[in-house]
Each structure stands twice: as structure tokens, then as C-alpha cells.
Fold these 3 entries.
Entry 1:
Amino acid sequence: MTSSTLNKTIVGIIFGGANSEHEVSCASASGVFANLDRERFEPVLIRISRDGLWQRVESIDDPATGGELLPDLSDLDIVLPVLHGRFGEDGTVQGLFELVGVPYVGCGVLSSALAMDKLMTQRVLSAAGLPTIPTRGVSDRTRHTASAVADELGYPVFVKPNRAGSSVGASRVDSPAELDAALDLALASDSIALLQPVVVAEEIDLGVLQEIDGELSIGAPLHILSDDGRAFFDYASKYTAGGHEFEVPARLSDELRATLESFAITAFRALDCEGLARVDFFLSADGTVAINEVNTLPGMTALSQYPTIWEAAGVGYRELITRLIDRGLAARSAGSRSAGSRSTDARPAQAR
Ligand SMILES: Nc1ncnc2c1ncn2[C@@H]1O[C@H](COP(=O)(O)OP(=O)(O)O)[C@@H](O)[C@H]1O
Ligand SMILES: [Mg+2]
């Protein structure tokens, strides 16, 4: 089966992954697989097991076991990584694609690695003049300083792993007695735990999509209405039916919407993103805006924010996937991977 005999683009959908977001990735991949335009694309499902072994499978929940350490990707026209978290969204898999020379959808090595690392993201965004949240990091070695750091920030504090996702390892700490357990939890997911003041805010997500010619489009702003009983947008609220609701488009003034859009574009460019990103904001009652994080491979289940953001902007899930793949192919043929998407900096930012 070759692309010439089928006259279709062979797309490797890579999912699973050796991290805490394995299941979320499988759910995202189901959405992508179901929405791949079969007129143009031929899917090949490739699963990475929790042990990091790569295997071609017939379906997302194929019970097959085994696999290999290094995959043969040579028959694929392009790969679409539908992976979240470490060893997927963090540049490592993107590095493998670069090494073997297979085109891929989305952010490259640098932007993936930067955006996965919340501390590094903040440094880059702050240097670009964007508002972020005061953040301090502690490791096992410097953990003894955490209680002084928390006192300095003032309770309640928010504790979360530097490199993780889906709210795994995150907790709100209301008093010094709870700090140790929160640090244990965060440090179980990464070597660095972050401490931040608890920001009482609305969460607004913006989706950035890069068009074939490199221009950036922004979807409808999405407001997350978390279940009132929860302290924050935790794993259960994210993935339990009824755990949250989205208001999309979020009711924002034109001025605020324009500000968030320009921040999202600046963040995308500052981190050298490519293809897509979801930029997540905290919006406090006094009007203060801060970027919480940037996701380079945002959740892609049919109910996830990124497809919802595009649906509301008139781009259905199927078209979204097609556009992502077409941009990945175009970026590769234009050589913009090796040149870096910073080459698009010269163009004026275009919000839609
Ligand atoms: N400083 C903070 N103050 C209040 N809530 C926070 C803070 N940081 C994170 N949260 C809550 O925790 C959730 C997960 O944190 P986030 O930084 O987005 O990590 P993840 O990569 O796991 O999504 C956020 O969506 C938000 O609800
Ligand atoms: Mg988040």
C-alpha cells in the first residue's frame, strides 16, 4: 500500500505515550481518527505503549501487546502526533521525526520543549513582555526552602509539577500543614515542583492555528466554567461528563478579546510555535490578565477545548484536522522547520 497506488496521503496517527496522559491521548486519537478525511488521507494508527514501545495497531483500543523501541516510519507521508505530556508534547518525539526525516504536524523540537516546561515558558513569555504568574520552582534538593517560599507568596498557594499536564499532580494548598503532601504529589510527576499564588480568576483559552501560508488565525475564545464544588480545573473536572461547561465564544468586550488575541499571537511567535497551540489565560475580577500556560498538543477529544474553539469559529473538526495536516506538509516543503517558524515574524500578525 503506497501513496501512489492509493493516491492518498498516508498519515501516521501516533498516540498513547509513556506518561500519565496515555488515556487522554487515546481519547484524543479517537477524535482525530474519526474525523480524518478519508477521501484524501489514509490513516495508519501507531500506538506508543506505557513502556515506550511503538506498535502499529488496527484500532485505538487494539489489545495487541509488544512493539519496538524505534519505529519504522519510512512509508508515511506525514505523522500527526496526538500525544500529550512528557515524551510526546515535549520535543522528544519531534526530535525523532526530525532525525528520520518524516514530516510532522505541529510544533517543532524547541517550541515543544519550551512549552512543556512551565518555568521556561514563563521566562520566554516575560522576555516578550507578556504577563505571567509569579512562580518559584523547588526540586528534591531545594525542597527545604519550599515552606519559606510559600510563606513569602502567602497562602493559599498553588503547587504543580513543572512538566506535566491534565492537572496531574496539581493541588491548591490552603495551609502549611498541607504543603508537604502537595510537594510529594507534584514531585512524583516531575523533578521540579512549582509554587504560585492562587490566582482567583476565570480561565479563558485561545486557539491559534497556522494557515498553509504561515499566517495565524485565532478561534473563538473559550471560557471554562468549572464545577463549583471543585477548587480548580482538576483531572476529574476535565474528563468527567458534566465536570465542566464551556462558554464559547466567551463573553468578552471587544477590547479585551483583541488584547488576548494579540497576547496569544505574541506568545505563539515568542515560543517559536508551528501549526497550532492553545494559549490559556487567567482573567481576574479586577481585569488583570495573565498567561497560565501554552499547550502545543492540546486535547483533541471531540469535547476538548481546541476542537470546540474551532467549531465555534466555523471550522469543523474534520476541516481542522485537514488544515493541520496541510500546514504540516507545507511547512516541510517550504523548509520552514529547519529555518524556524520565526521566519514568519516579518509578516504582520493577523488575528483572523
Ligand atoms: N496559580 C494558580 N492559581 C489557581 N489555579 C491554578 C493555578 N495554576 C493552575 N491552576 C488550576 O490548575 C489547572 C491546571 O494547571 P495548569 O497550569 O493549567 O497545568 P496543566 O498543564 O496540568 O493543565 C488550571 O487549569 C487551573 O484550574
Ligand atoms: Mg492547563
Entry 2:
Amino acid sequence: MMSHSHSNIEQSILKAEAICQSAGVKLTAKRKNVLIILLHSEVPLSAYDLAEEYRGHFKESLPAMSVYRMLDFLTQENLAHKLTSTNKYIGCSHITCDHQHEIPQFLICDKCQNVSEIGVKKDIIKALNQSVKRVNFSLSSQQLELHGMCEACQSIKNKKQAKKN
Ligand SMILES: [Zn+2]
Ligand SMILES: [Zn+2]
Ligand SMILES: [Zn+2]
């Protein structure tokens, strides 16, 4: 995954403010700081990691409850996402995009923890929903989380193998 550059983060924050304004909700200073931390991070963060980072960056400690509330807010507005398979959070990588936020599909590298966020095509989701409906299953989330190895980690692995030979 490409890491976010600083200008991207600034743009994302500006866009996040606009998104919240048009949704009639407020991106308070603390919520914004939490989002900044998530966007800066190369890897998904647990609520605990986030509280630690917050204390380090902003010299203020947040009660766990308020960390969770802020994360709930950010995920509700699609500015951040919760990876249920790892119980960690990441900033949305499509904040500055103009397209509608689709149901996210996450490619999670189990080696370096990097996460790529991809939108799933509508007809794939539709087909998925149909097969789920066929067995009368009720989905609580449509988010897809796929685990594997990212491109960078694969090439490291390949190089190591080449050395061995
Ligand atoms: Zn997203
Ligand atoms: Zn996008
Ligand atoms: Zn990786």
C-alpha cells in the first residue's frame, strides 16, 4: 500500500470537515486529532494504541470510553474503518475521493500489517447478498476483510528465496 503523504492528510482533513458539515455533524478538535493519527499511521491501530499515540502527539490522555466514542463517530461517517478481524482501526483512504463510499474490501497483509482499502463492485455485493439470503443468513456487516501478503512483502520473500538458491 502507498503510504499517505502529509499533503494528502491535510487534504483529507479539509475534506473530512466538509463531509461532516454537510452531514450536520461536528468534527471536533479531538475527533480531528484522532483522525490525523489514524491517517498518519502506516498500520491499523487498536483503541489502546490510539490512546497511546494521542498522548504522545497531543500531550493529553483520553479516557478509553471517549476514544471508543470518537472511533464510533469516525467509522459512522466513513472517515475511518474498523477491521473486525483484527479489532483495529484505520483511516479511510478514500476521503478525498468524489465517488460515493462503497462497501469496503480490505486487503490485510499479515506480515507488515499494511491494509489496502478497495471498493467492491455493486454487482459482486449483490451476488454475495443473494447467496447469503438463500441460506437465510442475516448479515451484520458487508465489509470484506481478506488476509494475505502485500506486494512489498512478497518481493522480500522472493528475494530471500532467490538468495537461498
Ligand atoms: Zn473508506
Ligand atoms: Zn476512492
Ligand atoms: Zn506486507
Entry 3:
Amino acid sequence: MAAMNIATRLIDTHMHLHTAQFDSDRAAVFERALSHGVMRMIEIGYDRESSRAAVQLAESDPRIYAVVGIQPHYAAEANASWLAEIRQLATHPKVVAIGEIGLDYYHDRAPHAQQEQLFREQLALARELALPVVIHSREAQADTVRILRDAAHGQPGIMHSFSGNWEYAESCLEVGFHLSFSGPVTFPKAVELHDVARRTPIDRILTETDSPYLSPHPFRGRRNEPGNVRLVAEQLAALRDVPFDVLANAVWQNACALFQLPELP
Ligand SMILES: [Zn+2]
């Protein structure tokens, strides 16, 4: 089969490479990612500026795509003009989803009702534009599931940097969402997350780094970069007891289908 000749391709579905942490060596970071087989990367916005930056970064390299949206941290200040700009950015041909959007009761920087309203507005925007959603949820599992069941059922989406137990994972899978695993799944003591990674159907798994955050073992605490998504994929393959290529190819296909990415030449 022709597929035997294609090198294993990896994808980082969630990074923030426009941030200042990469200003001194962004080009070298890209090159390292490529040398690890990371053939596609998705830059994620979280407010207006980072969403603009994501689109710019996507324009700079054919391997990079963009996601635009407003994180719950800004729910108190985000107004109609913010959403109008996200809507406008979302029409760019390299924008592949709306995100990161959701609820954050850990940082808790905005009232929950305002977080929910902004979340629902952006779920509706994504539905209208026929784009998937990238969900950020911290210490807000019950409300996240309630809103997704009510407002996003049947809409394609990703639980970004999934953390939680199998019961929560099942609820997200029932809504139809994918689970994206990041650095923490490589931590030896993350047994609950290991369990989720073993039980998630292979066609619902994605990989990400959330660079510059969440570095995988053994780089925990250091700046993360997209090349490290290889360590996440290796850990998922080991946990599931499947060959690395099988896991990587499944993730690649899942991501291309979800984000509607074109075939590589
Ligand atoms: Zn993020």
C-alpha cells in the first residue's frame, strides 16, 4: 500500500505560538516541530489580539491553521464589537474553528452568567458558520456538559487539553465531541487521565501541546513547543498498546476530518 511509504505525520491541534515566549526563536521552533514529524499546527486565539495574531501566523506558513474566539476570562468586557470582529476573522480561509471558548471557574475572572452567555453566543456563531468549536473548561464540568447538551449537541467540537475522569469524558463523547490530550497525560501519576486515554474511542482522540504551557514529561515546568506533541502521541500509543504509527495516523485523520483540512500533497 502507498501509505507504507508515507512518514508518520503528527498534528498539534492547540498552540499559542504568537506569544512573546517564542519571539527569540520562533523559526527554530517550527523547524524542530517539522523534524519531529509535526506537519500541521493549529494556532488558537483567546481574545481579539491573539485571534488576529493566529490568522497572521496561519498566513505565514502553509502548515499552520488558525482558530479564533474569546476565552471566558474576558466575558465581563467582551461586547458586540468583539464578537463582530471574531465573526469577520472567522471568514478567513485558514480559520478552521471557533475557540477557545467555554467556562473557567478556576481563574474565575468573570461572573458565571456572563461566561455562559459569551460561551453560548460563540457556540451559535460556530453553528452558523459551520465551524467546529474548541472548548476550554476548568473546574466547570457540570455547567460545561449542561450547556453543550443544550446548545452544541450534534455540533463538532473538541475538549481541549482534556482533564477529568471517565464519567466526564463519556458525557463529552456523548455530545459528539473529541477529546484532545496534552502534556498531563504523560505524567506518571495521572492515572485517572491514563484510564480515559485508554477508553476513548480511537476515532475521537486528538493530540495537542497548548504551547507554551503544559510541557510533557520529562520537560515539565519548561516552555512547551509543538515538537513535543510527539511525546503525547507516544504516551497514548503506549497506554493503548498500539503501534505508534497506528495511533498517529488515526489522530491525523481525526484532525483532518474535524477541521476539514485539505489532503497533503
Ligand atoms: Zn490554549
